[in-house]
Input
Amino acid sequence: MTKKTAVITGATSGLGQLVALELGRRGFHLVLTARSKDRAAHTKKQMEEKAPSAKVDFFYADLSLLKDVNRVGNEIAAAYPAIDVLLNNAGIHAFEARVTPEGLPEMIAVNYLAPWLLTHCLKPCLQNAGKARIVNVASEASRRHGKLKLPEDLTDSTPFTALGSSPIYGKTKLFNIMFTAELARRWAGTGISVNALNPGFNVTGLGRELWFAPLLERMLKLLRLGDPRRGADLMTRLMVEPKYQQITGGYFTVGTGTSIEPAYPGGDAAMQRKLWEATEALLETKGFPASKIPGNDPDQLGRQFV
Output
């Protein structure tokens, strides 16, 4: 059998690394994005020890920068004409407001805009695979998203405290769910299924910006709370189990792997379309017009939604 190719973001630590190890054991050719070459080297060593037969390639980018996302997406697309799985896993929970050099709120850029743009860059390769899957990591933190205001939320860089960061983070995860549903409709008939998941509470990478995070992580592990293997298991299931290939636009939860309803207005089709259109408009102002993004040609996609 020809090896299947899986692209994974955020695979140098936490859930993404666990999933990469599991897919490596299953014979996937792994294409992993990384920002740090040191962390990539550490991950490669882990792969060599725990999945020695796996083939692993790294591509480097800062996913908070749209220009980097676009570049790495095009580099991956040029190297791998057929991609079977894309796992949009990379994300951050920042405890203070930061604005990227491109003038975007950092959490919005990393958690939502990066997977949106990367997915579109890789669309031709996913379609070439025949039956491909996209898995977007969301969260039940989306239920604490505050109040949605579009398009303002996509560019809101109002300062916030560590406590006030939770609604912003939740909003980015709600956007992931809404993007998943709208993408599933727009790409219907392409052979690409797209689903989102709630990986549950996990201690890996917990509060990287909190000074007491390492101590808290050790305490939670001693109490056997937040086992990341549960979330990684669901990610893997969505990527390999036949039944999930037949489903698109779903949102699934850890443990049972069953479908759940997102928080309002996550399941509202009109709001999903409004978010999509606001995202396209924003990306155009940043130099990435829809007509120039692979797989997002308005002459081919979305006419029925006008």
Remarks:
- The chain has a mean pLDDT of 89.
- DSSP finds ten helices and seven strands in the chain.
- The radius of gyration is 18 Å.
- The longest helix spans residues 165-186.
